[in-house]
Structure formats: structure tokens, C-alpha cells
Amino acid sequence: MSKYFKKTAIAFIAVLLFALNASAKDSGGNASKKIDIDLTRMSSTMVYAYVFKMVNEPTKFIGKRIRMKGVFSSYYDQETKKRFFGCVIADALACCSQGLAFEPAKKRKFPDEFPDEGTKIEITGDFEMAEDGDDAYPIIRNAKMSNE
């Protein structure tokens, strides 16, 4: 292998690594995460079906990055003294609803830093299972939330 070829190959690899590193960062300098399942691009029937499947077969979705639109909901459990947040969607006929709990990526003060109940929101976060004693339920963690 000639010296010229080695130097050219090393330079090419260095430029390639630099380009890959630069493209993997967003404007905030954080590694960007691709969306594995984008429910915002699906019909209301497909969204409802997907969320139903996520709730009933959650192990198939653990670790996936999810984006979804719905309405904001919250619930305060008197027994555990904990507030839960949800993104709720309705089926195509708006007769039934299905939703997922979520935890905001950054700490927010309730109710001041949250939308009103029923406000349309979009969340993006990581699908995981939360454990509460003997129970487990699906949850979107590290959720970035925006009002529509």
C-alpha cells in the first residue's frame, strides 16, 4: 500500500467520522433520536389500533421512540400521592378513547406549566414499562410535550 493511498484513506475516514458526528447532533448539541413510531402521520383508525396494541402488548414496543398527538389529561392518585399525565386519543367515531401515560422530560410545576385538561398536545418520548408494586403499565418517558 503506498503512502499516498494510506494518507488519502486516513483523511477520508477522518472527514467521514467528522460528518457523521456532526449529523448526529441537533442544534442543542444533543444526540438526536430517530422516531421509531410516528403516530402523527397515521389515520385516526391506525393511531387507535396502534395505541390499543401498545397497551395490550407493551413488550413489543419497549425502547421505541414514539411521537403521538392527543389531548392532555392528568390524574392524581390519593393513595400514592402521585400525579399521572396522559395523552389520550379517540377512535375514528370518537366513541372510545385510548391513551398512554407520560412523564415529562423536564420537571414542570403542575398546573402552572401544563396545558388545561383536554388541550391538544403532541408528545415525543421513549416507550417503557413503569412498575407500581405488583402492577406494570406502559409509559412514555423523557417526553417532550408541545401544545398544538
Order of helices and strands: HEHEEEEE
Strand arrangement, largest sheet?
2-3-4-6-5
How much strand content do the residues show? Answer: 35-45%
What can be said about the biggest beta sheet?
A: 5 strands, mixed, barrel
Helix vs. strand class: alpha/beta
Global shape: globular
CATH homologous superfamily name of the largest domain? Nucleic acid-binding proteins
Number of domains: 2
How many β-strand runs? 6
Give the radius of gyration.
Answer: 21 Å
CA distance, first residue to last residue: 59 Å
Number of H- or I-type helical stretches: 2
Structure description:
A 5-stranded mixed barrel has the order 2-3-4-6-5. Helix content is 23%, strand content 39%. It has 148 residues and is of the alpha/beta class. The chain is globular and about 35 Å long. Helix 2 links the parallel strand 1 and strand 2 (65-77).
